[in-house]
Amino acid sequence: MSTEPRLVEVRRNILKHNDVIAAELRKRFREAGVYTVSLVSSPGSGKTAFLEKTLSLLGRNHRVAALVGDLATENDAARLRRSQAPVKQITTGTVCHLEAAMVRGALDEWNLDDLDFLFIENVGNLVCPSSYDLGENLRLVLLSVTEGEDKPLKYPTIFNTADVAVITKIDLAGAVEFDWETVLSNIQAVRPKMEVLRVSAKTGEGLDEWQRFLEARLRP
Fold this sequence. Notes:
Layout: H1 4-32, E1 35-40, H2 47-58, E2 64-70, H3 75-80, E3 87-91, H4 100-106, E4 117-121, E5 138-144, H5 151-154, H6 156-161, E6 164-168, H7 180-190, E7 195-198, H8 207-215
Parallel strand pairs: 1-4, 1-5, 2-3, 2-4, 5-6, 6-7
């Protein structure tokens, strides 16, 4: 006898529960005046390096903090702490994504009124995170030039649930013969009019534009 209907119902209940907590988080973030950004990507996209640079830049004039999800280690959190921003690790074990309840638990000891920006780095995965709202204001999907131009076509759901695409490691574009026209066309085919930013955490190219993009979204 097939168990598929039961599995579908369980999944619906899990997502509904997640959405309820995400709505609570969104309300808390709004009341505290915190602009919350989540980052999703496949492993190796340069997500942590990009976030470290972001925390360092914004931290000069704004109060910033980060939550970082990983299956096992605290390596990414240790790297992000070099920015001098408050950072907390969320270890997910066998779970391949962050859930709203994990974010809520990680925030227990933090006063959101003390923050301007909160960044949430999800587990490296382009499938599971697409289904889980974390209460964020903005979801970024990162794609490195070393991954190829067809990632948006292979993983359309994550691009459809994200607000902005960030192309990383652009300093390597020439070396890997990255085709800009093709990747931009693929992104627009999946998500028409999606904004695309280009950055290099190594050279700093594009980071000033990214900083201005974020600061424009803070409440007056």
